[in-house]
Amino acid sequence: MSPTPLPRPATRQALAEDGSSRTVREAFWRGTIQSLPFLVVMVPFGLLFGVVALEAGLDVAQAMGFSILVLAGASQFTAVQLLGDNAPTIIVILSCLAVNLRMAMYSASLVPWLRGATTAQKAGIAYALVDQSYALSIQEYERNPGLGLPQRLAFFAGVVAVVCPSWMVSSWVGATLGQAIPDDIALDFAMPITFLAMIAPMLRTPAHMAACFVAVLASLALAGLPSGLGLLIAAPLGMVAGALVEIAAERRARA
Amino acid sequence: MTNGTSDATVWLVIVVLGIGTFLIRWSFLGALGNRDLPSWVLRMLRYTPVAVLPALVAPLVVWPAATGGQPDPARMAAAMATVAVGLLTKNVILAILAGAITLFGLLYML
Description:
The structure holds two protein chains of two kinds.
Chain A: H1 15-18, H2 24-35, H3 39-55, H4 60-70, H5 73-84, H6 89-100, H7 102-114, H8 119-127, H9 131-143, H10 149-177, H11 190-199, H12 206-221, H13 229-254
Chain B: H1 7-31, H2 39-45, H3 48-62, H4 73-89, H5 92-109
């Protein structure tokens, strides 16, 4: 079954494989190194966001306002596109918040791993909780259940140190250099590939497979709904499917 | 802005979205404090990443924006190669490489 967080490193023998012997500094650098492949995603998309923002009529300061204050790629593209189309302000805001609602699920799923963090630490995590920092961190926590809270926080910080500045800087470059960026090299697919590559190794049990399968089917069936809404129905369906399969497997193991 | 929307409106959108998005991310992590979650909630939360992230990308794989929403064999094959290598090797980097090579190889050949 899925590892659940241990309150403290269990025994000395268990230290070798579960990450509990790592120092805070090692955890930070692991986060940094593991997020380097994501530069392939963040940099082109950041550049593209800068370009698209200027094409929609924003200035460089506004593009940076989005990348620093909102810091959420998909919703930034949504906002810029709707602003460019002169959509009503309330529609722009509601659509983008709907796109970002999935992050409430990220927030909930981090609670068991990050309980005990200070309010300031939680605020920092909340600010930098993007798809990439969530996906990399939860993967690391599940793989190394013995990590202590300081190591978990350090890993998250290491990821954020790569992922967030690269998004901000590349959107600034895109907004400044504008049209000089080639748009014909199939980079649209960098995001799906990196996420699939992260998820596949996490499909360890039939329950994980079931959650993934149900969520994918439902998201395809609900793709016609306004952006973000289909996901908000599909993902919980997948989570329920995973939980049900887990319960069934436990019953079978006990019988 | 150069079209109908004023600069002040754009900044309003940025600030409201910034605050709203922060509150969404803060929601459970901040509000629950350090209370214990009931076990049925924990059971469901375990499946958050494997449910949300695949559901997020599935429509992008099946109906890629780059082809105007038309299903594209190269992108489908790249997605399948990524998942297959990721499942078999448990290695994220190898899976990304497999997907990228499949995508560019097929785009080049087709």
